[in-house]
Amino acid sequence: MSEEDTATFDPKINNENLTKCLQTLKHMYHDLLSRGIECPNEAEFRAYDILLSLTEGETLRLVKDIRKDVLKSSFVKFAFEAALAFKSNNYVKFFKLMEETTYLNSCIMHRYINEARSQALQVIVRAYSTLQRS
Question: Which stretches make up the PCI domain (predicted)?
């Protein structure tokens, strides 16, 4: 949908709605947990929240609100691995993770593809310009 005309698909409105939906889910998870109810899909949606904030530097802030058992889930571990790869400019790992993950994770990661490609080109140019000077 990212290639659609904005008359058909507005990414800004889509992002706002997604953010509101995830915020509502976080509140619901908190309210249900206060009544002793744990939700089986919480880890998956917490991971989506982490993946959606790769460029905002909020990863550590998000962690403080996540229960330990959810933090240990494969969903959240993957999201942290992707965040680390992205933030450390490890474009090879970022793209590899994007290929190996679920469709929805890959869709979320797709929003960072141009920035990851730009980072990759900067790393490659720096590496080759250093080699030519030697």
Answer: 10-134
